Amino acid sequence: MFARRTQIALALVTSLGAAGARADTIVVANENGQSLSIIDSQTSKTTTAAIPISPHNVDVTADGRLILATGMPAAQSGSHAAHGSAGGQLILMDVAGDAPGAPQVVTVGGHPAHVVPDAQGHFAYLTDAETNSVVVVDIPGRRVTGRIPVQNYPHGLRLSPDGNLLAVANMKSDTVSLVDTRNPEKAMHISVGKRPVQVAFDRSGRILVVSLNGEDKVAIIDVDARKVLRKASVGNGPVQVYVTPDGKAALVANQGSAAKPDNRVSVVALEDGKLIRNVTVGKGAHGIVIARDGRTAYVTNTYANTISAIDLGSLSAGKAYPVGKGPNGIAAR
């Protein structure tokens, strides 16, 4: 059994082709620092961009030209769980040039958490825990165009590889909503387990992995059958999750709590739900992303104010990069 799991681990990158090493640009939402850290992994050069919100989550458009960050205005944010004014915001920042452009603000209201753009850069989808909906933003028009009802306290969300399905983790309903982006008024809801926080599709779009913060597990879901295939035990307080490009494993960031932080990323085989390895990173592992060449994962360490790089060939943590206060969401381009 150990030998088979080792073979899975070593196969995570060998199946990705012969692409050479390249520099990654990593974007980190510093929730307690009201800023974004933009890091060149090759030179370690870090640019800190102040923004007018406490950013909980961040993503980058497919062309790599635009950063999207969500959160509450800094003066109103308090803790992430605090609901306040109707001033939730989406920040857009052009990074096509040598230096980040000035942040542009779209007021979305409520209490936004996560954001994902579609592949064309036309629309962004944001979860709003205050109205139990997904906010739809026209990116070129810089305006809200609608809301999609889901269930109680939506948090993490991701689009399927073909862009036709939006999966939303509803933390207080213990469900995941599946929304057809071509017909968004009809959503299906799947019971998955306690306190789902984030979701991740495999590259086929047929498997969905959900972190269950209230169970210290992940649920592995058959999307077509709309059912949980199995659950897998991970670390303490799992938060974000990401599936490897070959679809064989999920990486799960385990944050734990402020009193008892976890510092591990669990690597789980999707075929049988078995643990391949726990990779030690920094305190409070929260956000996770795999770089676009599929060779390196990056993890935010919320209580250490750093991010860690994980080599997916050896499944070991390498360099740590200092960032701002309370790093949370993370994206790569």
Annotation keywords:
2 helices; 53% strand; 4-stranded antiparallel beta sheet; Methylamine Dehydrogenase, Chain H; mainly beta; YNCE-like beta-propeller domain-containing protein; 28 strands; signal; 333 residues
What does the largest sheet look like? 4 strands, antiparallel
Which geometry do the CA atoms define? globular
Kindly estimate the percentage of residues that lie in beta strands according to DSSP: over 45%
Structural class: mainly beta
Could you name the CATH topology?
Answer: Methylamine Dehydrogenase, Chain H
Q: Please tell me the total number of domains.
A: 1
Radius of gyration: 18 Å
Give the CATH superfamily. Answer: YVTN repeat-like/Quinoprotein amine dehydrogenase
Order of helices and strands: HEEEEEHEEEEEEEEEEEEEEEEEEEEEEE
- Number of DSSP E strands: 28
Oligomer: single chain
CATH architecture descriptor = 7 Propeller
Regions with pLDDT < 50 over 5+ consecutive residues? 12-21, 77-84
CATH class: Mainly Beta
- Terminal CA distance: 36 Å
Report the total helices: 2
Strand neighbour order, sheet with most strands: 3-2-1-28
Helix content bin: under 10%
Average pLDDT reading: 91
InterPro entries: Host-pathogen_enzymatic-act (IPR051200), Lactonase_7-beta_prop (IPR019405), N2O_reductase_N (IPR011045), WD40/YVTN_repeat-like_dom_sf (IPR015943), YNCE-like_beta-prop (IPR048433), YVTN_b-propeller_repeat (IPR011964)
Keywords: Signal
Pfam families: Lactonase, YNCE
Signal peptide: 1-23
